[in-house]
Give the backbone structure.
Amino acid sequence: MNKIIFPSVEDHLNGLKGFDMHAMQLSSGKFLCQQRDLQLPKLVLGDRFINTSVQYHSVLQQDWFYILIPRHNDEVSVNGHKISLNQPLILTESQEALVQVPDNYYAFYIIITNDELKKYFDEETIEHFKNTLSKQNFLKNTFIQPDNNLQHLCTLIEALLNKSKYLSFQAVLDSQEKIIESLCQLLTFSTLLPDIHRVNMSTRLAIVNRALKHIHKSNFLNITISELAKISCCCIRSLEYAFKSILSMTPKQYLTKRRFQLIHATLKQKKDTPINQILKNYGVVNQGRFAKEYLRFYDEYPHQTHSKAPYL
């Protein structure tokens, strides 16, 4: 089992394989992610703790079922909707999701391939899973999830993560089968859900996705809100509504946080480039005021981050 510590959002993203993913720290303070990862013959198990609030914009690239189970009554937002406490998040291939997690977020995760799951469900059911999940803006009442069933699954995962190094290979395999059996009970539809027509939310999600793709692709942060609205195929008012309903922030606030993230990453990488030049490249006009805002967010001044960068 691997135990990994990621001291930055960028390091954390590099450790998430199989995703087309961007992430942004939302709350202030130094970022820290602690993760345990256990590779088993049929699936991957793990747990993850993140100390600051983070927003993920992700698409699962691999043909997996990626199941994330928040614990400790964490309230998570998915595509602009707050989901039930400890509600599992389930992603399938090519499913796009905007997920916000709170400070001190802790969750278990399970990764199982589509082919492996077909050994327990028929192919038609697997496709039904995928189709249903892809149509929902967020997962709520999709599966039968009695508290005792969910708690049992989490107990099995935690026990195996804590004791795997002390168990025989056969005992680990037995635990794996118990976890898969519990997972299969979790992945049981409560009903065949009717088509849910959320025209406004679907439209707003599409607007935000178009805007984020442009921002992440170009890293061009001096774009005006009117220009961003045009790229997102909507008016300024619709862009504002979309960002507030999906991301709980305005487009301007998002661009500001994105600028913080990019400057922080650049300061850590380019020691040969003067700080004032880096800030100027990202459109920072009042560098003194920026330094104070930077201190509140990262608990250090820009020059302190810059001093840690290696010489190229």
